[in-house]
Every structure is written in structure tokens, then in C-alpha cells.
Specification:
Length: 495
């Protein structure tokens, strides 16, 4: 018996512990998915407690001394191996997580459950005051979280960025965003002055939209044995385990934005789906970073989903589902309509040009909120003022303003910038894909999406988190984070 026990190598023991942690996290993911897809609202309190417990258990297991000891024993692995990558990634997460007391981790998970429910209600009733105490609590918890890390030379906000984007600094984001603002604000201004565009005329029945969404997914390579698609107010993708990909979309009768939400979530889903199964139940079994993840959702939503080639393939399938609404509109007019630059209120519905400004607004407000220069109660007014300044739109109510995103209700501060970094990266990767695969639009027109998907799988998806995001980007594109290809793309398309 003891002979068997001593035969377990440190690496095997580490893998066993990590698998148990991953299983607890997957259980939490299922609980979260259920709370957003199918749980009756009155379950929120009990679910928040359950999530708090699961999160605390995972945290305690992950930060236990045994795991730290194993990481020390495994310090000298060959640096190029997958095992070494596993130890490196685990050590980084371990050292960060070990700074957070289990109690704080549990408090944060529990606060999230309650705040999401309050945010939901506040948004439905257009009443920021319902959400305010929860936002105050989230800010307080986030500051306690930041305090767990030693003060660095850069910004306190670096701590939050590092959670989603290894190696990214507030300075670098500020620099990239300043460059974007320089080009985007005048571009939006010029576009706002242009007029005479066609706007889609609904209603677009929900059932037909669901059918259309599934047709797109099937074209991209959706397998019902591994995937499912549900309806939620805020679309998301979840992977509660290898081979189990759950997407949600949001359907609105007034327009066809659900199609683009579905493509977006597909991008997240396919990344997770195509990660090497040998990495399952380890910290290597997820995407490299939030921005790399987002580069993929944006790639499928915009670079594929707004391409002429895609619509030459898909429009003949879409039109018959909406004969009255689309019957007299040809595919290129349709494409112009869904690609139009139209400054609006909602980030999730924003076009490619205005999207970045929605993010820059949030990046600025988050820093002000956490540094204490702005109180949570002042947010709606500031939000509305800056929407006017950057996008020239008047916010009619908080549901269409400061309450539109759920992120702050689950304590996601430092996350928004990764969306825009993802846009920037998506074009860098796209340029490389085109140079290797030839004319992608011609392939899309024939309904062929697998050459692109296979290339992405080979270059990015299968590696999971084996490489840090900066290294992965260099391996794929040969360069570092660079806003110029993205700006060139926008200027060519929209100038
Ligand atoms: Zn996304």
C-alpha cells in the first residue's frame, strides 16, 4: 500500500490536485450557467451561498501548502516541455491566489451572486439606486483585493489587468487607447454627419432568429453533441468541462443583432473547444488571456461575420426566413446596414468604429472609481456626460447607460480593456491568416470556414494557456501588440 503511495510522482500528485480544483471550478461554472439560463429568480440567495462555498473550497485547495511544496519540487523541469508550462502557469496563479485570504474569495463570490440579482432588477426597473449599494460593496471588495498585492511601481490598476492579461500594464493600455482615440473620435464625428443610410425594418420573429443563429453555427462547425445555445439577457459562453460548450445569445425582435452575438460567443466557444484535451482539468485548459480570447470572438463576429464573402453565402439562407422584412433588400445593402457606423448607447450592439470608445469610457471610469476620485453614486452623471463627449449620444435612462453591462456586478474591473485589445489583436492575427490561407472571402462564399478554423486551432486554440499572451502573439504574428493594422483596417473600410 505505502509502496503504491510513494510511487506517485510529484507531477502526478500535482495533476491530481489540479484536477480536483478544476472540477470544483467546473461545478461553479454549471451553477453560474444555471443561474443565468434557467434558475427561478428567488433562487439567487441560495445560489450565491453555494457559489461562495464552491469558490472558497477551490481556493483553499489551490492555495494549500501541499500544492506550493509540489511546485517547489518541480522547479527544474525542462523549460520547453508541456509539464514545465503547467508548472509555470500554476505557479503564477498559485502565487497570486495565495495572497487572497479564503474568506475574501468567498465574500467576493457571494457578493457577486447578490449583486447580479440586484443589477438585473435595477436594469429592468431603470433604477440605479437598487444597484448602488452592491456597486459600493464591489468597489470595497476590489480595493481589499488590490491591497493583497505589494504596491508596484505602476498603477494599482495593473493588479487587475494582470488577472486577465498577463504582462499587460495600465501604461501600455493607456498608450494604445490614446492612439485609438486620436483616430476614432474624428472618424465617428465624420460618420455621424453622414446620412441617408438604410435601417433594418423589423419585427424579426424570435423563432426565425433562433433558426438563423443555428444555421450560422452549423456553417462554422457547431456539433450538437458538444454544444448548446440558449437565450439570456447578456450573452456569454461557458465551458463546464472539456467537450461541453454552452453559448447564449440575446434575441430582440427589433433587429438581427442576435446573429452577431451568436457568432461572437461561437468565437469564445470554438477556442475553448479546440484546446488540446490533454490539458483538460489543468490551468493550461483555458485560453491564453482575455484579450486573446476576445480577439477570437471579435474575429468570428466581425472579420468573418461582416465580410462580403460570408454574406454571399449566408444571405440566401437568411432572406427566406424573413421574406417580408428582407425580401426587397439585396445582400450588399443588407451588409452595409449591419456594418454601418452608428453611434449608439449600447456597447454590445456597437459597430466596429464606435466600439472602442465605449471601452475607453469604461477603462477611464473604472480607474476613477477605484482611485476614489469618483464615488459610485456619481457614476450615472459622469457616464452620461462622457457618452455625449465621445459619441455624441444622449443617454435617456440608466438601463441604457451605466447599468447596461453586468461586469461590475460580478466584480469584473480591469476586464473591459481586454475587449478592445482583442479587437486590435484580431486584425494582427487576421493579416497573418490571410497571408497564409489566401483569399478567405472566397472560401467563406463557398461556405468553407474550416480552413480558417483549422489554422486558428493549429496556431492558437490547441495551445490553451501554454504560452503567455505576448509570446503567443509573437509566435503567431511575429510582432508585439500593435494598434496600426487595426486602425489601417478601420480607415480602409470606413473612411
Ligand atoms: Zn466576448
Amino acid at each position: 500500500m505505502s509502496a503504491v503511495e510513494t510511487a506517485v510522482s510529484p507531477l502526478e500528485r500535482l495533476r491530481t490536485l489540479l484536477a480536483e480544483v478544476a472540477d470544483l471550478q467546473h461545478a461553479e461554472s454549471i451553477a453560474d450557467w444555471d443561474s443565468r439560463v434557467s434558475m427561478p429568480p428567488a433562487g439567487a440567495q441560495a445560489r450565491a451561498e453555494l457559489s461562495g462555498t464552491l469558490s472558497r473550497l477551490a481556493h483553499e485547495k489551490f492555495t494549500a501548502d501541499e500544492l506550493g511544496g509540489l511546485l517547489d519540487e518541480l522547479r527544474d523541469l525542462d523549460t520547453d516541455s508541456v509539464d514545465a508550462a503547467l508548472v509555470r502557469v500554476t505557479r503564477r496563479l498559485y502565487e497570486r491566489a495565495a495572497r487572497i485570504p479564503g474568506e475574501l474569495a468567498g465574500e467576493m463570490a457571494e457578493a457577486n451572486g447578490l449583486a447580479v440579482a440586484a443589477w438585473d432588477e435595477a436594469k429592468a426597473r431603470c433604477d440605479f439606486s437598487i444597484f448602488l449599494p452592491h456597486l459600493e460593496r464591489q468597489v470595497e471588495l476590489k480595493l481589499r483585493y488590490i491591497d493583497c498585492f505589494p504596491p508596484e511601481e505602476g498603477s494599482f490598476y495593473d493588479v487587475l489587468l494582470e488577472d486577465y492579461e498577463e504582462g499587460m500594464t495600465t501604461d501600455e493600455v493607456t498608450r494604445v487607447f490614446a492612439r485609438l482615440k486620436e483616430v476614432l473620435v474624428p472618424l465617428v464625428q465624420r460618420k455621424r454627419d453622414a446620412n441617408g443610410e438604410v435601417v433594418l425594418q423589423g419585427p424579426f420573429p424570435v423563432a426565425a432568429q433562433e433558426q438563423a443563429g443555428l444555421l450560422v453555427l452549423q456553417g462554422f462547425g457547431y456539433d450538437p453533441l458538444s454544444w448548446r445555445l440558449d437565450e439570456t439577457p447578456h450573452p456569454f459562453a461557458a465551458k463546464p468541462g472539456a467537450g461541453d460548450i454552452r453559448l447564449t445569445t440575446h434575441t430582440n425582435e427589433d433587429d438581427l443583432t442576435s446573429l452577431f452575438s451568436t457568432m461572437h460567443e461561437f468565437g469564445h466557444g470554438v477556442y475553448e473547444f479546440d484546446i488540446d484535451h490533454a490539458y483538460a482539468r489543468t490551468p493550461l485548459g483555458g485560453g491564453a488571456s482575455s484579450a486573446i480570447h476576445e480577439s477570437q470572438s471579435r474575429m468570428w463576429e466581425y472579420l468573418v461575420g461582416r465580410s462580403a464573402g460570408f454574406w454571399r453565402w449566408f444571405y440566401p439562407k437568411l432572406q427566406p426566413l424573413f421574406p417580408e422584412q428582407l425580401g426587397s433588400l439585396d445582400e450588399m445593402s443588407f451588409l452595409r446596414t449591419v456594418s454601418a457606423v452608428r453611434p449608439g448607447l449600447i456597447r454590445g450592439d456597437a459597430d466596429e468604429v464606435t466600439y472602442g470608445l465605449h471601452i475607453i469610457l469604461r477603462f477611464e471610469l473604472e480607474q476613477e472609481l477605484l482611485s476614489g476620485t469618483v464615488a459610485p453614486a456619481e457614476l450615472p452623471e459622469l457616464w452620461n456626460g462622457r457618452m455625449m463627449e465621445y459619441l455624441g449620444v444622449a443617454v435617456p435612462d440608466d438601463a441604457h447607460g451605466v447599468l447596461q453591462d453586468m461586469h461590475w456586478s460580478i466584480g469584473l474591473f480591469g476586464y473591459f480593456p481586454t475587449y478592445q485589445l482583442g479587437n486590435v489583436i484580431s486584425v494582427q492575427i487576421w493579416e497573418r491568416a490571410e497571408s497564409e490561407l489566401g483569399d478567405l472571402e472566397q472560401q467563406f462564399e463557398r461556405g468553407e470556414f474550416s480552413p480558417l478554423r483549422e489554422w486558428l486551432r493549429e496556431q492558437i486554440y490547441r495551445h490553451g494557456s501554454r504560452y503567455p499572451p505576448r509570446e503567443l502573439l509573437r509566435r503567431v504574428t511575429g510582432s508585439d501588440l500593435d494598434p496600426e493594422p487595426y486602425l489601417k483596417y478601420l480607415q480602409t473600410k470606413f473612411a
